[in-house]
């Protein structure tokens, strides 16, 4: 006589430590359902780099994420009690006590998500932090978008990619083709570099309004502009020359001293009667030997 044993109910696989610690966020429960709006994250930052904090704060505000800067004197128990999704910390601000501080924080709240963002480091330091429980390690200087992406990966938060506007924009004789990352005049490419195209696209998106130099630098270089940095002015000068060489009937980039730049097509006076003279005026001067030859 055979005895039929009762079947054991299938057990669910045990989630990993990283998966167990993640806070659940809004997601679609069935295939094909419209994705729900993800709630804003809450971020704590333990850092003393003022430039880094300014740039990061601007990016977090655009995403409508809640954030706060905590002092280095804050004990780990206080940090663990904060209702935040992740902590961005630079161990350099903690000094020699950083390892003991981090270990006490991990013991107080094992589910806490920590992204270390600091300067130079050794392999030993990175391995020690990751094995201790850090979720990620990012070296400075870094682009704020990369830091935000690593925060999202650590907490299981996924933003829906925003569709890129690929429509062309025409300003004067210039056609900005976003799908080709290039600008054209009468079908001929201006030969813009990637950063020059990003600059003209940024200026064009402002609808003839002034764009501050600091904002241009932040958007194109990904960090706060230092005092007396002329990088924006140099690239504006290069872009302006390419525009006016290809389309001398119009003046495109306008300087607002002490503020920034504005992109708008404004006709050059008497340009219709003397387009050739304007084009020649924008050319570099001929060598002295050629001038002497023509004089002879």
Topology order in helix (H) and strand (E) letters:
HEHEHEHEHEHEEEEHEHHEEHH
Q: List the strand order in the largest sheet.
A: 2-1-3-4-5
The share of residues in helices is: 25-40%
What is the name of the CATH superfamily of the largest domain? Winged helix-like DNA-binding domain superfamily/Winged helix DNA-binding domain
Helix and strand content put the structural class at alpha/beta
- Percent of sequence in beta strands: 15-25%
Radius of gyration, taken over Cα atoms and rounded to an integer in Å? 28 Å
Number of domains: 2
**Total E-strand runs:** 12
Q: According to CATH, what is the topology of the largest domain?
A: Arc Repressor Mutant, subunit A
CATH architecture of the largest domain: Orthogonal Bundle
**Assembly form of the protein:** single chain
Low-confidence stretches: 8-36, 272-296
SS summary, helix count: 11
**CATH classification, class level of the largest domain:** Mainly Alpha
Average pLDDT works out at 77
Shape: elongated
Q: Characterize the largest beta sheet: strand count, sense, and whether it forms a barrel.
A: 5 strands, parallel
Calculate the terminal CA-CA distance, rounded to whole Å: 123 Å
